[in-house]
Write a structure and sequence with these properties.
The complex is a heterodimer. Helices cover 68% and strands 2% of the residues of chain A. By secondary structure, chain A is mostly helical. Chain A folds into two domains: 113 residues, Orthogonal Bundle (Rna Polymerase Sigma Factor, Chain: A), CATH 1.10.1740.10; 80 residues, Arc Repressor Mutant, subunit A (Orthogonal Bundle). In chain A, helix 2 packs across helix 3, helix 7 crosses helix 10 and helix 9 packs across helix 10. The radius of gyration of chain A is 17 Å and the shape is globular. Chain B is mainly alpha-helical. Chain B is 66% helix and 3% strand. In chain B, helix 1 crosses helix 2, helix 1 packs parallel to helix 3 and helix 2 packs across helix 3. The N and C termini of chain B lie far apart (89 Å). Classes of the chains: A mainly alpha, B mainly alpha. Chains A and B meet through strand 1, helix 3, helix 4, helix 7 and helix 8 of A and helix 1, helix 3, strand 1 and helix 4 of B. Strand 1 of chain A pairs antiparallel with strand 1 of chain B.
């Protein structure tokens, strides 16, 4: 799906692009390790949207998310031969992205850029409500501690299991369970003002 | 509401997020489901959790620009994977140890070679050479007092 918005694609999810059998990924990784650039390009195609989406939720703006996604993908290429296959390629890639996001210091306020980069709905009233929703959700996410936000984003948007989240974050399943419990409690509080105003 | 039910409720509330995420073991899952069927308070909590999740997924997220792939591949073509991994950790350790031994060996050989050569004072300096003036650092810093 294309928009007239700086060449950006907008969608809540795109299963055709984001899902990829881990076994296929492994084959592509092997080919890429042998120097097959087309194989690595296919890995980028498969995971760029999911990785970008995660980084967008963490940073709150698309230019920072894109810069971090680029760094993560290039870093993945550079250390591809260090990938042991103990987890899926996706989990390993997200681990790189998570580390970059955790060390990242935002240059702009998280919700500032939302207004510019989102596509317009045809119905102006609905577009207004949707923008309010986008901003409220992003602000609520930004209000969570980073590790809670990371776990929540990976769970809700990337639909990762607790085990996968643990592998990506370097934490135990029990720790992930605890992070998500607290994240959801905090989220309720952070969304409350928007809920009272009927935005979400 | 009895104490037993209350404690069960707090237990179930703690488990509800994992229950909704499908992360509970079957026995626990059934226990929570049974409790939910009988407890209106916990059902309300479950509905609230679902509503929060719905709020999250209702927010839009932009996709990456069409240039991301191009930029990544341009960078990739300029670089190579950083190192060739050695599959066996013991092999890596052995290689590292060998490198240290070789390094030490070279160091010893070089040391012996230098000991056998003339000292700098034996060197024949050009006639114009004059001994450099050594300035006392402390003196210069403290103003010579």
């Amino acid at each position: 799906m294309r928009s007239a918005n700086g060449g950006r694609q907008v969608a809540v999810s795109d299963p055709e692009v984001t899902t990829s059998p881990a076994s296929d990924d492994r084959e592509l990784v092997q080919q890429a390790c042998a120097g097959d650039l087309a194989a690595f390009e296919e890995l980028v195609r498969r995971h760029q949207r999911g990785l970008f989406s995660y980084l967008y939720r963490m940073t709150g703006n698309s230019s920072d998310a894109e810069e971090l996604a680029q760094q993560a993908l290039v870093k993945a290429w550079q250390s591809l031969r260090g990938f042991r296959g103990g987890s899926s390629f996706k989990t390993w890639l997200y681990r790189i992205g998570i580390n970059l996001a955790l060390n990242f210091r935002a240059r702009t306020k998280p919700t500032e850029e939302l207004v510019e980069s989102m596509p317009a709905e045809e119905n102006p009233a609905e577009e207004f409500r949707q923008r309010q929703r986008d901003v409220a959700v992003q602000a609520a996410l930004a209000g969570l501690p980073r590790d809670q936000r990371t776990a929540l984003v990976l769970s809700v948007y990337e639909e990762m299991s607790y085990r996968e989240i643990g592998a990506a974050m370097g934490k135990s399943v029990r720790a992930v369970d605890s992070l998500l419990f607290r994240a959801k409690q905090n989220l309720r509080r952070l969304l409350a003002p928007a809920r009272e105003r009927g935005i979400v | 509401m009895s104490n037993r039910v209350m404690s069960k409720c707090s237990e179930v509330k703690r488990l509800l997020p994992a229950w909704l995420d499908g992360e509970l073991a079957p026995a626990r899952r059934d226990e929570v489901a049974k409790h939910l069927a009988a407890c209106v308070v916990c059902r309300a909590e479950m509905a609230a959790l679902r509503s929060d999740r719905q709020a999250l997924v209702s927010a839009r997220v932009p996709g990456p620009s069409s240039f991301l792939l191009t930029r990544v591949m341009a960078e990739v073509k300029r670089t190579r994977p950083a190192r060739i991994a050695m599959p066996i950790p013991a092999l890596r350790t052995a290689v590292a140890a060998l490198a240290v031994v070789v390094g030490l060996g070279i160091g010893v050989l070089l040391g012996r070679g230098l000991a056998g050569s003339r000292s700098p004072s034996d060197a024949v300096w050009p006639a114009s050479y004059t001994e450099p003036v050594v300035v006392d650092v402390y003196e210069s810093v403290l103003g010579g007092e």
